[in-house]
Write a structure and sequence with these properties.
Elements lengths: L4 H14 L3 H13 L3 H14 L4 H13 L3 H14 L4 H13 L3 H14 L4 H13 L3 H14 L4 H13 L3 H14 L4 H15 L2 H13 L5 H9 L2
Helix pairs in contact: 2-3, 2-4, 3-4, 4-5, 4-6, 5-6, 6-7, 7-8, 8-9, 8-10, 9-10, 10-11, 11-12, 12-13, 13-14
């Protein structure tokens, strides 16, 4: 005996109503991202774009998950798709720039940071990351401008100060670099990298062996093993 067509259509309608929407899947993917369950997040975002191909936020979020898994090329492809769907959002440009930085594609990353900055010039992280790209390109004057812009929001951001000191050294300004590094270690007394760079700069730029050795020994005590080579060569009597 055949079932009435009405009942079949009603069943199909009910089945359709039980399926999660693209928005539900997107929210589940974001929740998985927040739990650091990146592969599961990707699976949710894949389902989103299967349901609704024109969903730039899903491609951007999927790119973030790929980035966290250190799958740079897959991340770049997802961010690029997000940009193709919506070129007015700074986030996928910024995120793609970050993935390109991991590949040391500094010139391409700089383009993306410029685009992100043009869409939203109030984001300190854009200035900081663009400064890193400029540092990689040895464009030290421009890097310093961006690091100073990033410091306007937080003058005591030791990440920015440390990389500003690198740009200062690249710009042949060791005295200001040393002053900046001293500020870093004042703010973060366990910053081994800053102690190391401070010690090397004191010795190589100023010939200040005593101060340099003190900083290098501090770096070594904090686990910065590269300092040992300098200590063995220059600091042991």
């Amino acid at each position: 005996m055949h079932k009435p067509l009405f009942n079949i259509f009603a069943f199909l309608l009910l089945l359709s109503a039980c399926q999660p929407s693209a928005e539900d899947l997107f929210d589940a993917g974001v929740a998985a991202l927040e739990r650091q369950e990146y592969q599961q997040a990707i699976e949710y975002f894949d389902r989103v774009v299967q349901k609704e191909g024109d969903y730039p936020d899903a491609y951007n979020a999927r790119g973030v998950a790929f980035f966290e898994l250190e799958k740079w090329d897959e991340a770049i492809a997802s961010f690029s798709k997000s940009i193709a769907l919506d070129s007015t959002n700074y986030k996928p440009y910024f995120n793609r720039g970050n993935a390109l930085m991991e590949k040391e594609a500094f010139k391409e990353a700089l383009y993306d940071y410029n685009m992100a900055n043009g869409l939203d010039f109030n984001q300190p992280d854009i200035y900081y990351n663009r400064g890193l790209a400029l540092l990689g390109l040895e464009m030290y004057d421009d890097a310093l401008v961006d690091f100073d812009m990033a410091l306007k929001g937080n003058p005591e951001d030791t990440r920015v100060l440390f990389n500003k000191s690198k740009a200062l050294l690249g710009n042949n300004d060791p005295l200001t670099a040393i002053a900046t590094l001293n500020e870093v270690v004042r703010l973060d007394q366990r910053n081994a990298s800053a102690y190391y760079l401070l010690g090397v700069t004191e010795m190589s730029a100023l010939g200040n062996k005593e101060a340099g050795c003190t900083q290098l020994k501090m770096a070594l005590s904090l686990g910065y093993t590269q300092a040992k080579e300098w200590i063995d060569e220059f600091c042991e009597e």
